[in-house]
Amino acid sequence: MKTAVVILNWNTKGYLHRFLPALIESCGEEDAEVVVADNASTDGSIDFVKQHFPSIRTISLDQNYGFTGGYNRALNNLEAEYFVLINSDIEVDPSWLHILTKWMDTHPECGICGPKILSYTDRDKFEYAGAAGGYIDHFGYPFCRGRILGKVERDTGQYDTPENVLWVSGACLMVRASLWKELGGFDERFFAHMEELDLCWRAQLTGHKVQNVPQSEVYHIGGGTLANDSPWKLKLNFRNNLMLLENNLPATIGSTRARIIIFARMFLDGCSALAYLLTGRSDYMISVLEAHKEFRTLRRGISFQKRKGVQIDGIKKDCIFARYLISRV
Q1: Residue 15 belongs to what H/E stretch?
Q2: Which fold has domain 3-220?
Q3: What angle do CA 83, 92, 143 make, to 5 degrees?
Q4: pLDDT single digits (tens) 101-126
Q5: 41 near 13, Cβ under 8 Å?
Q6: Distance between alpha carbon 44 and the CA centroid of its chain, in Å?
Q7: Which residues make beta-bridge pairs with 135?
Q8: How far is CA 238 from CA 19, 160, 180, 229, 329, in A?
Q9: Angle at 199 between CA 194 and CA 202, to 5 degrees
Q10: How far apart are CA 71 and CA 168, in angstroms?
Q11: Checking DSSP bridges between strand 142-144 and strand 134-136, what pairing results, if any?
Q12: pLDDT value at position 324?
């Protein structure tokens, strides 16, 4: 098997019913296998797959290990040249996998790649989670080609050129299995959200490129397992953003500068918490405070220096908040 296309499922039987047939069909002419790994769902997802798609391999986990732990355990059971991680709430274009596979076959410098991700409900518009590949700004705030903060662009072909980026969305990405194993998979402290940013950044630190391949297209619903306005999701994003920076900034710019940026980012987070309080979103303020508390518990500290001779793509020197405000004037 050349490619293992793996859905990590948690209580999304309805999406499997809707999107699994087209996914299976798209893999039919490729040397690829579709696998459904299940994070101890309670909605009968695995029984549904076994009954309606008996040829599909399933992996049943004994508890919900999150996006990070679930994929780590699932991929440890598989042997392939490439791993594809794909959400259950994605509709694929018929040629999406062929294009990604051909790209990896012909670009050995690329360790991780991803497709253009469009909105399932508004198909000429980018999808918030990944769009056409992502960057971070000077303070570590992520944004995409096609999305800055809450502003999502329409796809008019403006990002149809393959591009080196810092990260591609975990909603749909392809990674060389050898690189996945070299990196040790996801950092399980993240549980969910921003773990793919960390994986992609670490891949670049080993000398691999991360690239968006927009000729491959998929359509993502988004928020399929956790609502976008969830305070818990907000907490994970604030907490994991700090872990992302601590994991990778020191090796990118040196430990002293990394400490300064992380301190500045925590100050900006505090400003966000105050803004949430003043606008009546005390639940969001509590999420930010809890995120910082958990970061202090989970952090490993900064103990290494800049890795010389490695070029990291996708870190911008400006501030996306300023760019966003200017664009709205």
Answers
A1: helix 13-26
A2: Spore Coat Polysaccharide Biosynthesis Protein SpsA; Chain A (3.90.550)
A3: 75
A4: 999 999 999 999 999 999 999 999 99
A5: yes
A6: 26
A7: 143
A8: 31, 31, 25, 14, 27
A9: 125
A10: 16
A11: antiparallel
A12: 62
Domain assignments of the chain as residue spans, ordered by start:
3-220, 231-328
Q: In the chain, count of helices (H) and strands (E)?
A: 10, 13
Q: Rounded to an integer, what distance in angstroms lies between the CA atom of residue 71 and that of residue 78?
A: 11
pLDDT at 329 over 50: no
Q: Judge contact between 97 and 181, C-beta under 8 A.
A: no
Burial of 322 (0-12, 13-18, 19+ CB in 10 A): exposed
Query: Which SS3 state, helix, strand or coil, does residue 252 take?
Result: helix
Tokens of 286: 């509590």
Taking a C-beta distance cutoff of 8 angstroms, is the pair 216, 5 a contact?
no
Q: What is the pLDDT of residues 13-67, one digit of tens each?
A: 999 999 999 999 999 889 999 999 999 999 999 999 999 999 999 999 999 999 9
pTM of the model: 0.94
* Positive/negative CA dihedral, 88, 236, 120, 93: negative
